[in-house]
Amino acid sequence: xxxxxxxxxxxxxxxxxxxxxxxxxxxxxxxxxxxxxxxxxxxxxxxxxxxxxxxxxxxxxxxxxxxxxxxxxxxxxxxxxxxxxxxxxxxxxxxxxxxxxxxxxxxxxxxxxxxxxxxxxxxxxxxxxxxxx
Length: 133
What we know:
Largest sheet: 2 strands, antiparallel
Structural class: mainly beta
Radius of gyration: 22 Å
Number of helices: 0
Order of helices and strands: EEEEEEEEEEEE
Distance between the termini: 54 Å
Strand content: 15-25%
């Protein structure tokens, strides 16, 4: 409860103290936000929580996590294991395949492996990579 003016003798109203499931609270003044992909809130916490290892939340505003449909080094555009694809060369994915794409190698790094689960390696002496991916 809060007072709406100075010198009040009684408290009125109610400041939101909890957000709906699938969201977290920025602050009591700023309100709630939807949980990002790979985070969730059942409504029992004021903040979105990260999914445990091997679990994913495939959509914004999730109230639970599910077993990841894809392994590390792969991604899905369908949300199911039938749609899992290995990350192509020049990309990688360090999380269980919850994303809809893999991360491109930065300039100066490379990865020739398909399905890479680790960040790209720096180019060796006398070599270079002049483009991302």
